Amino acid sequence: MSALLQVTALTAHYGDFQALFGVDLTLDPGQTLAIIGANGAGKTTLMRAITGIARVTGGSVLLDGQRLDRMAAPEILRAGVAMVPEGRRLFPSLTVEENLRIGAHARQGSGFWTLSRICDLFPVLRDRRDHPGTALSGGQQQMVAIGRALMSNPRVLLCDELSLGLAPVVIREIYAAFPTIRDSGTAIVVVEQDIGQALKVATMVHCMMEGRITLSGPPESLGREAIHDAYFGVRHG
Ligand SMILES: Nc1ncnc2c1ncn2[C@@H]1O[C@H](COP(=O)(O)OP(=O)(O)OP(=O)(O)O)[C@@H](O)[C@H]1O
Ligand SMILES: [Mg+2]
After folding, report:
1. How many CB atoms lie within 10 A of CB 16?
2. Which ligand is nearest to the CA of 159?
3. Fewer beta carbons under 10 A from the terminal one: N or C of the chain?
């Protein structure tokens, strides 16, 4: 069986600065992959390279065998890769419902996710649907950002730092939606600095440092020491 998403030898640059150095990863249907790493490791750049926002300078990204790395960002979204960006980025002048409906513009045909199903997933959004997105709590805004991405009925959902700035109880509430998302047929990639949360949901973990994957494996196989070294570099002496 071929992979749903196959990233091979991916490099990316900001001007002359190289941010990714030959990243390889594979995502199978039904899988949840976690990417962890310290500040500046290249996690966001990897998400942005896959979704056509950062400049890819080498390697390839395949979705079901289809080459994404030569497509523009809107085409990649229509092909089935959606991202929940770092910092949520809702449209401040639009209501919750309008923010969600924007996600549907990239939809191809019919699919599982509708406004109603997203409100079933996060019931608070049904109550708040006429509120401006920015009148919500951080956790509720994150739910809208996830819902907006799901409205395109993606094959792959990339989530960048969902936990950032949220209370533990809210983080748990958001991650509680993951089984339903996976069961809908959408594979998930989460980027997290919160390692504990990432290890709990992931079927496979990749640790990044300085633009490279330095450690990979199923969460139960990765020891604390190994993660520490892959995260911060191996300590000498
Ligand atoms: N727009 C940009 N222009 C130039 N350099 C950038 C830009 N965005 C990121 N970088 C650099 O690329 C490297 C990787 O950054 P990236 O944001 O991908 O890391 P990250 O792992 O997501 O970090 P964080 O955990 O802080 O979000 C860093 O050295 C960063 O300074
Ligand atoms: Mg980042």
Report:
1. 5
2. 2
3. C
